Amino acid sequence: xxxxxxxxxxxxxxxxxxxxxxxxxxxxxxxxxxxxxxxxxxxxxxxxxxxxxxxxxxxxxxxxxxxxxxxxxxxxxxxxxxxxxxxxxxxxxxxxxxxxxxxxxxxxxxxxxxxxxxxxxxxxxxxxxxxxxxxxxxxxxxxxxxxxxxxxxxxxxxxxxxxxxxxxxxxxxxxxxxxx
Length: 180
Prior knowledge:
By secondary structure, this protein is α+β, with helices and mostly antiparallel strands. The chain has 2 domains: 1-32; 37-179, no CATH class. Helices cover 15% and strands 42% of the residues. The protein has 1 helix and 11 strands; from the N terminus they run αβββββββββββ. Strands 1, 2, 3, 4, 5, 6, 7, 8, 9, 10 and 11 form an 11-stranded antiparallel sheet that branches. β10 (161-168) and β11 (171-179) form a beta hairpin. The longest helix has 27 residues, at 6-32. It starts with 5 loop residues before the first helix and ends with a strand.
């Protein structure tokens, strides 16, 4: 039977724990790296104008998707999209400036008399009560999706920036960015 010196045993244990620590850090980095982040589902609740009745018919809620891009030093970027063909015809960009963009679409026949507004109320099925920078209004047979960075600040108290605003296959798509 071979007897180890206490100092050799300590060295072996130290290397063993360092090896496990390195594997644990690599696993943690894999799961926390935004490039592996799952898309976030933003649920917008619809609030009809006036009292809720059987007429006019409005959607009660709908979802949009946003995904974080891989982190880069100095900032972050969020990509978003909205597939809303179940209640609206193809969208087109109606207006944009440095702070906001508005997409517009004709409502599907079932919802054409809807007059309502919508704000983000949940993110990934968890209640959200912050500033709703994504909103929608339904009026005069049209749906208007609004991405508005007014009042949105990043970690350096700078206004977040819309870096992409477009329509793909009739659906609004966007990207916005901020500094950290």
